[in-house]
Amino acid sequence: MVLHMLHSSRQLDICMALLSEQDTLLVMDFNIILAEPKRFEGLPCAISVLCEPGQTLSNLNTKSITAESISDTDWVELLCAHPRNMAWA
């Protein structure tokens, strides 16, 4: 059960190769998914996106990707819920 925090798309392929059903992928910048939405389809784990107040995921969820919008507080809760975390820069 790992929280993978994706800060950019540079290491996206390596990150995706390590994802399992028990993991969570936290996309730190909404624009990463918007730039290449097809790459995020069919992932084995939950996807969360750190959003600014008022930012919406409505465009994202219509492209066959289901992601949960989370706040800074939710991010801290995810960190506490996952015994391990990886940061992908």
Give an overview in words.
This protein has 89 residues and is α/β, with parallel strands linked by helices. The protein has one domain: DsrEFH-like (Hypothetical Protein Ychn, Chain: A). The protein is built from 4 helices and 5 strands. A 5-stranded parallel sheet has the order 4-3-2-1-5. The longest helix is centred in the last third of the chain and has 10 residues. The two termini are 20 Å apart.
Q: Could you give a quick summary of the protein structure above?
A:
This protein has 89 residues and is α/β, with parallel strands linked by helices. The protein has one domain: 3-Layer(aba) Sandwich (Hypothetical Protein Ychn, Chain: A). Helix content is 30%, strand content 25%.
Low-confidence region ranges: none
CATH uppermost class: Alpha Beta
Global outline: globular
Largest sheet: 5 strands, parallel
Q: Taking Cα atoms only, what radius of gyration do you get, to the nearest Å?
A: 12 Å
What integer is the average pLDDT? 89
As a percent range, the share of helical residues equals 25-40%
Count of spatially separate domains:
1
What is the structural class?
alpha/beta
Q: What's the CATH architecture?
A: 3-Layer(aba) Sandwich
CATH-assigned homologous superfamily: DsrEFH-like
Measured distance between first and last alpha carbons = 20 Å
- Spatially, the strands of the biggest sheet line up as 4-3-2-1-5
Number of beta-strand segments? 5
CATH topology: Hypothetical Protein Ychn, Chain: A
Helical stretch count? Answer: 4
